[in-house]
Specification:
The complex is a heterodimer of chains A (about 140) and B (about 170). Chain A is of the alpha+beta class and about 140 residues long. Chain A is built from 1 helix and 11 strands. In chain A, the strands form 3 sheets. In chain A, strands 1, 3, 6, 7, 10 and 11 form a 6-stranded mixed beta sheet that branches. Chain A has a 3-stranded antiparallel beta sheet with strand order 2-4-9, with no helix packed on it. Chain A starts with a helix and ends with a strand. In chain B, β4 and β5 form a beta hairpin.
């Protein structure tokens, strides 16, 4: 009889735990759903035309992220294939009430690339409409 | 009974033979990085390094092995050193995270330092994970992403030497 009561207690505790876990996971999912990532349109980039081998390439990005405080910069996603550096700049939009009107810009956000090989490297920036902004740097 | 002992001895001998066929070697990678810290505390200094292990095949060959025999790759040491000619002791660093990425692989955090020691020196050892990085390194062009959180309020030019050692466990070539 005592064992039976223990089993009921254990079952009740498990049910409460499962309920709280579902509640916590549910809350987390909702807050995550409010944020969406997007590709930022880059107006221009600035960087040196030539760098020495073993030096770091400094690229600064210029462009508008969004028109309210709900927009923010998220991260750069660079990748390298032979002779080409592909970069996507990602922003975030948080869907919430009361976002003040404000132009959020990249403000010369900087990306540093090291260990580029000797010769010419194309810098290919992916834009939101899948077009590209292309530039190059020479490593000597 | 005798068969039992014989079997155990045979297993031990076979195991030893397998150990003999394995090799461990280390590879040091170092990269100097120069940048401006910026004057905004909390901003990220985002550094990417590509083309890291281009001489992978030569490295394996020197150790009588090849990439296909790799059992495990892990970080065995990682540090940042100030390579400034000025007396810059990396006071501008709030925290550091290091990630690895490769084609078709999810970004993975491999090293970090949440808070710099009170007495900052010109060299900092990072905490690193013991995870197996074989899938990232063995046959892919992996990239390293160093994210330094800045705490400097003045924009200074800084140079650091980022160095780490990878440990490779591989089968010996016949």
């Amino acid at each position: 009889m005592k064992l039976h009561q223990n089993n009921i207690d254990l079952f009740t505790t498990l049910c409460i735990l499962i309920f709280f876990m579902a509640f916590i996971i549910g809350c987390k999912k909702n807050s995550g759903d409010n944020i969406t990532n997007f590709t930022i349109k880059i107006d221009s980039i600035s960087h040196p035309d030539t760098i020495f081998i073993d030096s770091t390439l400094i690229i600064q990005f210029h462009g508008n992220i969004g028109s309210t405080e709900c927009y923010s910069f998220y991260k750069f996603e660079p990748s390298y294939t032979k002779d080409s550096l592909h970069i996507t700049s990602l922003g975030q939009f948080e869907s919430k009430q009361g976002c003040a009107l404000k132009n959020i810009n990249l403000e010369s956000k900087t990306l540093l690339i090291s260990n580029l090989p000797k010769g010419n490297t194309n810098i290919i920036i992916t834009q939101p409409d899948s077009t590209t902004l292309i530039d190059s740097v020479y490593v000597r | 009974m005798n068969w039992k002992y014989l079997t155990i001895i045979a297993i031990v001998l076979i195991s030893c033979k397998k150990i003999d066929k394995l090799t461990n070697f280390y590879f040091d990678i170092s990269q100097e990085i120069t940048f401006y810290t910026g004057d905004e505390p909390g901003s990220t200094i985002d550094v990417w390094t590509f083309n890291v292990l281009e001489n992978r095949d030569t490295l394996y060959k020197e150790n009588n092995s090849n990439v296909y025999g790799t059992n495990r790759i892990a970080i065995s040491k990682m540090k940042l050193s100030s390579s400034d000619t000025l007396d810059n002791n990396m006071e501008y660093i709030e925290s550091i995270e290091v990630f690895i990425t490769a084609n078709d692989m999810q970004e993975k955090k491999i090293a970090w330092l949440d808070k710099l020691p009170e007495e900052i020196k010109t060299s900092i050892s990072l905490d690193f994970s013991d995870d197996d990085l074989k899938d990232y390194i063995v046959d892919k062009d992996y990239a390293i992403n160093i994210r330094i959180i800045n705490k400097s309020t003045i924009n200074i030019k800084a140079s650091i030497d980022f160095s780490y050692t990878i440990y490779i466990n591989s089968n010996l070539e016949n």
